[in-house]
């Protein structure tokens, strides 16, 4: 393709025409806009992350395996940051900002949703808190692996069906991270 | 997407930009006079802001990203195209041209002769043209890859060719061929998934594009070497960025869970010599060698760039740089951890901040690095003692948005022929002068071309 430089005169004519046609917002038209899939994703992923954080907070006092404790610490930091990023995205787009704890309690009250997103039930969370040592490690992994699988499904959905470029990049990075952690956790599950 | 609030500089007229936005034409913009830096800049006494050119024309509102340099020109990538500035007077950069050609993230590099510009596209597009629309990741006909432009006439770039690559091109690295005038591009990309037809697992590879010197429009993928035949560390699937050091036949690969040292003696068949994975590193992002090639600095982009990690909660060892010495020789070389570096100034929780792109300031006998930290600003630090990196200067703006976490700040900051150029995501191009011990000697080093991920040693 060859790009010829238009004359200034042609350009100014074009500008006059386009300015009227397109209005002032056009210069940033390149910045993509969100759709309902994007908005729904952040509403659901925030409480989903909240559960991973609550599970990870149990690890320092209960885990036997030091690598598992280190992984839990990383999940705790990362997903905390990601909640901030998703809340920031909601705020910037004029959407209601999801409260992680309130939304999490709402999800727990909905068993279908818990199942669909690979989350742990209220009872499983309560039981995990009673365990320690190797028993804790095994149950932590047995809950966190499907939890991450659920996240990967949600991330795939927003990458394929969402429309916001910035959220897409966030989702690609989150998906890479969660898949890497899944591989780590599956290895760990064989040895704990 | 990107909101502008508060202490933002005035908008330039974007009338000409409208035309370009719609037609995809390259055009010569009117001279954009450099504005003086705003009053929200804080900087150390040895860092002197000399110019700021706000976003403008068809790229106003577009995320601005990486930089490359050729002679008196700086080229700034953006998610929707690129800008070429004349920097013969660094305190008064002039816009030569802007090209609207959406893709993102717009990682740019130039060929050694300055005639070709390469640009990474990591978002699915409906086709390879500059008129393409946003595409879908489940459509096998979507396009992502590397765009090749002829920029031999800096005021009239021509789009030559789009080369599709597996999983797109998050970044790419210009590698001069060993035995010809051809240019090779190492293309890094990641996040394969069974549901993405153009990005299938395992993707433990990079793509290598050959750009023939006499017919650049015939650029094509010539190899897809598997870097991690055993899968690498858990879940590693692709690379984020690669830095090459051709005179030492070395490359540093920042490949998700792995920091990799590679032998690139055979330019189209890089081999991993050794890898390192750090318990504190979430995502190996980029690499820089020291001038002697004996140490390498890797960055960790915790949160992918959008997260506020420069705070007490995250601490000094995450979202940081990690410095390694290269020990041993030949295929037995290993990476030996020395220290972390992270900026010492805590940032607001509305400011995304994490280790990002930088390069060496060519001060003889020392390791001095200038680096972007998004809204943490630009940090200059000395790691001559690889166990004790310490900051010697900085440039830091206030939050883009004081109420909400918003992507902004310095994407890339590079030293080039006496000045530091910082590509700011929302505020355009910043130019600054660094003074102090060694900076006069650094200024003696004059380059014709700079692609910061293609390292050449400076005289010591």
Biggest sheet overview of chain A = none
Q: Tell me the name of the CATH homologous superfamily of chain A.
A: Ferritin, core subunit, four-helix bundle
**Helical fraction of chain A:** over 70%
Task: Name the average pLDDT of chain A.
Answer: 86
Which structural class should the secondary elements of chain A be placed in?
mainly alpha
The tally of structural domains of chain A comes to 1
Shape of chain B: globular
End-to-end distance of chain A: 59 Å
Number of strands of chain B: 31
| SSE class of chain B | mainly beta
What order do the helices and strands of chain A follow? HHHHHHHH
Description:
The complex is a heterodimer of chains A (192) and B (460). Chain A is 78% helix and 0% strand. Chain A is mostly helical and 192 residues long. Chain A has one domain: Ferritin, core subunit, four-helix bundle (Ferritin, Up-down Bundle). Chain A is globular. The N terminus of chain A is likely disordered. Chain B is mainly beta. Chain B folds into two domains: 244 residues, no CATH class; 171 residues, no CATH class. Helices cover 3% and strands 40% of the residues of chain B. Chain B is built from two helices and 31 strands. A six-stranded antiparallel beta sheet of chain B has the order 1-7-6-5-4-31. In chain B, strands 2-27-26-25-24 form a five-stranded antiparallel beta sheet, with no helix packed on it. In chain B, a hairpin with a 5-residue loop joins strand 20 and strand 21. The longest helix of chain B is centred in the N-terminal third of the chain and has 9 residues. Chain B is globular, with a radius of gyration of 20 Å. Chains A and B meet through helix 1, helix 3, helix 7 and helix 8 of A and helix 1 and strand 1 of B.
Can you summarize this structure?
The complex is a heterodimer of chains A (192) and B (460). With 192 residues, chain A is mostly helical. Chain A has one domain (32-191): Ferritin (Up-down Bundle), CATH 1.20.1260.10.
Per-chain topology:
The complex is a heterodimer of chains A (192) and B (460).
Chain A lengths: L7 H15 L13 H27 L3 H27 L7 H9 L2 H6 L5 H9 L2 H29 L3 H27 L1
Chain B lengths: L14 H9 L2 E2 L13 E3 L3 E7 L10 E7 L2 E6 L2 E6 L7 E7 L4 E6 L5 E10 L17 E8 L7 E7 L6 E6 L6 E6 L18 E5 L8 E4 L17 E5 L4 E6 L2 E6 L7 E6 L7 E6 L5 E6 L20 E7 L6 E8 L16 E4 L6 E5 L5 E5 L7 E8 L12 E7 L2 E6 L3 E7 L4 H4 L6 E2 L10
Antiparallel strand pairs in B: 1-7, 2-27, 3-30, 4-5, 4-31, 5-6, 6-7, 8-9, 9-10, 10-11, 12-13, 13-14, 14-15, 16-17, 17-18, 18-19, 20-21, 21-22, 22-23, 24-25, 25-26, 26-27, 28-29, 29-30
């Amino acid at each position: 393709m060859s790009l010829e430089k238009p004359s200034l005169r042609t350009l100014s004519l074009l500008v006059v025409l386009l300015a009227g046609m397109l209005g002032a917002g056009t210069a940033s038209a390149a910045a993509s806009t969100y759709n309902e899939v994007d908005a729904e994703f952040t509403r659901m992923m925030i409480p989903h992350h909240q559960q991973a954080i609550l599970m990870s907070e149990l690890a320092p006092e209960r885990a036997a395996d030091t690598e598992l404790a280190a992984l839990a610490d990383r999940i705790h930091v990362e997903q905390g940051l990601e909640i901030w990023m998703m809340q920031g995205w909601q705020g910037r787009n004029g959407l209601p900002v999801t409260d992680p704890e309130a939304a999490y309690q709402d999800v727990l009250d909905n068993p279908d949703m818990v199942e669909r997103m690979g989350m742990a039930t209220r009872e499983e969370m309560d039981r995990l808190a009673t365990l320690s040592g190797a028993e804790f490690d095994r149950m932590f992994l047995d809950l966190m692996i499907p939890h991450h699988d659920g996240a990967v499904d949600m991330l795939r959905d927003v990458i394929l069906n969402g429309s916001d470029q910035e959220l897409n990049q966030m989702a690609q990075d989150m998906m890479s991270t969660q898949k890497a952690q899944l591989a780590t956790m599956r290895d760990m599950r064989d040895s704990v | 997407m990107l909101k502008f609030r508060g202490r933002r500089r005035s908008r330039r007229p974007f009338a000409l930009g409208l035309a370009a936005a719609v037609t995809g034409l390259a055009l010569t913009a009117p001279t954009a006079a450099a504005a003086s830096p705003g009053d929200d800049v804080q900087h150390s006494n040895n860092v002197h802001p000399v110019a700021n050119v706000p976003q403008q024309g068809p790229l106003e509102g577009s995320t601005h990203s990486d930089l490359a340099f050729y002679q008196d020109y700086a080229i700034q990538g953006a998610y929707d195209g690129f800008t070429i500035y004349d920097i013969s007077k660094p305190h008064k950069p002039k816009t030569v041209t802007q090209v609207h050609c959406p893709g993102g993230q717009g990682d740019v590099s130039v060929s050694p002769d300055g005639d070709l510009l390469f640009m990474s596209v990591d978002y699915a597009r409906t086709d390879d043209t500059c008129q393409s629309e946003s595409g879908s990741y489940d459509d096998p006909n979507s396009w992502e890859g590397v765009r090749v432009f002829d920029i031999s006439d800096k005021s009239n770039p021509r789009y030559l060719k789009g080369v599709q690559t597996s999983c797109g091109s998050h970044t790419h690295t210009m590698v001069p061929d060993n035995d010809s005038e051809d240019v090779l591009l190492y293309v890094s990309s990641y996040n394969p998934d069974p549901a993405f037809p153009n990005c299938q697992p395992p993707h433990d590879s990079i793509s290598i594009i050959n750009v023939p010197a006499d017919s650049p429009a015939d650029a094509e993928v010539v190899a897809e070497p598997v870097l991690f035949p055993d899968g690498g560390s858990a879940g590693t699937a692709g690379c984020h960025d690669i830095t090459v050091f051709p005179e030492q036949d070395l490359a540093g690969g920042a490949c998700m869970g792995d920091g990799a040292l590679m032998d690139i003696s055979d330019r189209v068949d890089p081999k991993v010599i050794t890898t390192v994975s750090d318990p504190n590193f979430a995502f190996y992002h980029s690499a820089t060698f020291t001038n002697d090639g004996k140490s390498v600095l890797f960055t960790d982009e915790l949160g992918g760039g959008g997260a506020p990690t420069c705070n007490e909660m995250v601490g000094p060892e995450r979202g940081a740089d990690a410095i390694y010495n290269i020990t041993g020789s030949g295929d037995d070389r290993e990476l030996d951890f020395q220290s972390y570096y992270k900026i010492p100034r805590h940032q607001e929780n509305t400011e995304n901040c994490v280790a990002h792109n930088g390069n060496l300031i060519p001060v003889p006998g020392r390791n001095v690095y200038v680096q972007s930290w998004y809204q943490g600003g630009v940090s200059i630090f000395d790691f001559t003692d690889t166990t004790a990196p310490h900051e010697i200067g900085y440039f830091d703006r206030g939050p883009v948005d004081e109420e909400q976490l918003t992507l902004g700040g310095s994407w890339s900051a590079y030293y080039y022929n006496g000045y530091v150029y910082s590509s700011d995501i929302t505020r355009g191009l910043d130019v600054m002068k660094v003074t102090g011990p060694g900076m006069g000697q650094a200024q003696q080093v004059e380059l014709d071309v700079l692609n910061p991920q293609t390292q050449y040693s400076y005289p010591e």
